[in-house]
Amino acid sequence: MTDRSLRPLDPSFVGGHRLLARLGEGGMGVVYLGRTESGALAAVKVIQAEFAHDEEFRGRFRREVRAAQRVTSPWVVKVTGADAEAEQPWLATAFEPGPALADAVRRHGPLPPRAMRVLGKMLARALAAVHEAGLVHRDVKPGNILLAADGPRLIDFGIARSPHDTAVTSTGLVVGTPGFLSPEQAAAGELSPASDVFSLGCVLAYAATGRPPFGAGATDALLYRTVHDEPDLDGVDAESAAVLARCLAKDPAARPTPAELDAALVEDVPSGTADWLPADVVRMIAERSAEMLALPEIEATLAEPPTVPAPSRSRRGFLTAASAGAAVLAVGGGAAAWAALRGTHDGSGTPAAPGWAIGVQADLSGPGKEAGQAQLQGAQLAVEQFNARRDKPFTLRLRSADDRGSTGGATVAARQLAEDKDVLAVIGSSTDATTQAALPVYDAALLPLLSMSAGQNLLQNTRSFLRGRPLHNAVAMKLAFQWAATSAAAPVGVLLDRSGGDLSWMTIQMANFVIRQYGRATHPRVVPAGTTDLKPVLDEMRAAGIAAFVYAGPLDGALRAARGMADFKGPKYAAEPALDTRFAAEPAADGWTVVASAIGPGAAQVRSFAEAFRTRYGHAPGFWAAEGYDAANLLIDRLLATKGGRPAPRDLIAPLQKTKYQGLTRQFVFDSTTVGTPMLATPATFVHQVRGGALRYVGPAPDKAPVPRGK
User: 76: which DSSP letter?
Assistant: First the structure.
């Protein structure tokens, strides 16, 4: 199970509650499991000391206390105690051990139509109680809804406010969770109870389909779609879809009230029974309750990390495994790692410890197999070189799972590796979509996932995910720097092909912004997803007098853009999907510049790797092979730093997030101060140009460009 042990600096008692364990930590403070003298369990939220002295923050907490105390509903967690004036203010609510709706849907899939309707009716009644108290919750989302056998519980009034209370909300500040907030929240406008109804509509659509109705990805993209796009209700039964469509109306006045929503969701609400939920979710509630309640009467605060336990036979048993302390890590180096791993096999065949494994999830047989196979081969070379060491403390194996580049295949592949008792960490997957589909599986298992190719803003509240590359918009910024440093030709035609999803959106938004910061004009255009004829828009852009051109879209669209712009003489740039031999082989692509996070196999710093790769596989490495090699060596470096035997996968997460490792392609240092997934603090972006039917490595992209005009 997750390590919930109290830490040395945690308090032992708060407001008459003996603290037993940590339940979670957020921006405001820490939530503990507490027990009163009578034996009642409570969730006790304590403000962090550094915020307690902030009068504005303390005032916000005081309002939270008053808000929560005014709400009475069986479907809203009950406030059992509070002290807003204490040195460290605290709030206690009845403890609910069940899983969040988000966890249940990730693990077991969408709820059946009846379960969704029953859920909606009870949550509508919860919101009615919230609104009757004169409040707007502002953060109705799957993570704030706990499931119990007798019904859901709405939790967390951390950002609940009176509709007229704007003292703590700055102009333009978006409060809530993108993907589950209303259009007026997305536009930082005035809120009303109707905003919560919209959010509940998003929650119910998620419960019915397993996906948010406005998709996933970058925050800006989610906000834009929430304001402008229609919700995706595909998969919701027709009767329920009509009700949810009303909840998701852009105009707040067109939405039903909670009472009207309760009436519209025609379903009997079972009294005190669990027959409204699928059997596997009921079992999950029982398992989570047993996990949380199987705590000792009084758990001592730990001053030292416990001993690393023996691994369980299956990751399905991770809930029963004891937690282990984090290892103290040394700084690794790419050159040193290369020298250390080049030894020959000693022939003894006797490892000093049982074999351990690293997993690679990739597209090995689908549309992106070229990149997926290259990344796998790079990782395999690193593992083979490690196993050839005479002083290796263990033998390392590589386990691969082919997701075929599909989201459905990604979930299956992730489960395959997550259930493999030997796999300690995973590299993958090849694309944004497959990585996002796989993430919930790895996160539930607390199995570290290191991605070298997914650059989208993936799930933000993940625990086990590390991105070993910059975001797409950071790469796009470097593309604009390359434009400014080499030609600065303007006006610049920027074409967003929505077939490329959020990658294209992030690229064009950033490139357009940076180019304009240099005082140069842009000519932005957008084509809908599925567009196969780019000629009309390309003709219009040329007629407008553009002097440079940027395309962001999928590989097949980049090929069409290259052919359509064959007679255009200005500089032409493409986003990362064009980093492919098929694009380079297109005669019309000659001269195009591609800026990407993958280094070229001809770069000087990977020359030794490229030679070893050619010796091993009989051909030059492809794009992403060096990144796979770096990722595997980073994981090997962390495993070598582990003391006390084979670590549990979850105990590698914190050391990986704190690592400092110099690879061949980049330095791996993660900025843990960022919200959500730790970000690579040293972005690696590279420039390639199509010449003579091949993508030639130009060098690192500029870290900065000439000072913008007038700055």
Answer: B
- What is the C-alpha to C-alpha distance for residues 615 and 407, in angstroms, rounded to an integer? 34
Give the whole-angstrom CA distance, residue 600 versus residue 574.
16
Measured distance CA(534)–CA(542) in Å, rounded: 12
Q: Can you give the pLDDT at residue 682?
A: 72
| Architecture in CATH of 332-469+603-680 | 3-Layer(aba) Sandwich (3.40)
Give the separation between CA 461 and CA 437, rounded to whole angstroms.
Answer: 14
pLDDT tens for residues 48-75?
A: 766 666 777 777 778 777 877 888 899 9
- Comparing C-alpha atoms, which of 662, 659, 688, 663 is closest to residue 671? 659
Handedness of CA 171, 176, 182, 186 (dihedral sign): positive
pTM for this prediction: 0.55
Q: Which residues are annotated as a binding site for ATP?
A: 45
The fold of 472-596+689-700 is Rossmann fold (3.40.50)
What letter would DSSP give residue 606? G
Per-residue tokens: 167: 């003292």
Distance CA 617, CA 612 (A): 9
| Best CA proximity match to 653, nearest among 424, 436, 346, 457 | 424
Q: In what order do the strands lie in the sheet with 660-662?
A: 332-333, 660-662, 667-671, 679-680
How is residue 479 written in tokens? 């593309």
Nearest CA to 147 out of 24, 274, 43, 259 is that of 274
3-class SS at 43?
strand
Per annotation, catalytic residue among 10, 83, 103, 139: 139
| Domain 1-95 belongs in CATH node 3.30.200.20 | yes
Determine how many CB atoms are found less than 10 A away from the CB of residue 666. 26
CA distances for 581 relative to 99, 369, 604, 610, 692, angstroms: 46, 12, 21, 17, 12
Return the pLDDT at 50: 61
DSSP class of 100: B
Structure tokens at 310: 């023996």
What is d(CA 345, CA 101) in angstroms, rounded to the nearest whole number? 51
Told to judge if 139 belongs to the known catalytic residues of this protein, a careful annotator would answer yes
Task: Say which residue the tokens 């084979």 belong to.
Answer: 646
Task: Give residue for tokens 């199987």.
Answer: 294
Q: Please determine whether the domains at 332-469+603-680 and 472-596+689-700 fall in the same fold group of CATH.
A: yes
CA distances from 594 to 427, 583, 684, 701 (A): 25, 10, 14, 10
pLDDT digits (tens, 9 = 90+) for 450-491: 999 988 876 555 788 999 999 898 899 999 999 999 988 999
Pick the CATH number of 98-163+172-295 from 3.40.50.720, 1.10.510.10, 1.20.1250.20, 3.40.1010.20: 1.10.510.10
38 contacts: CB under 8 Å, gap ≥ 6: none
- CA–CA gap between residue 504 and residue 577 (Å, rounded): 9
Domain positions in the chain? 1-95, 98-163+172-295, 332-469+603-680, 472-596+689-700
Q: Which residue is it, tokens 């263990």?
A: 394
Would you state the structure tokens that stand for residue 366, as one six-digit string?
A: 């689908």
Q: Is 566 exposed, middle or buried (0-12, 13-18, 19+ CB in 10 A)?
A: middle
Closest C-alpha among 103, 92, 90, 101 to residue 126: 101
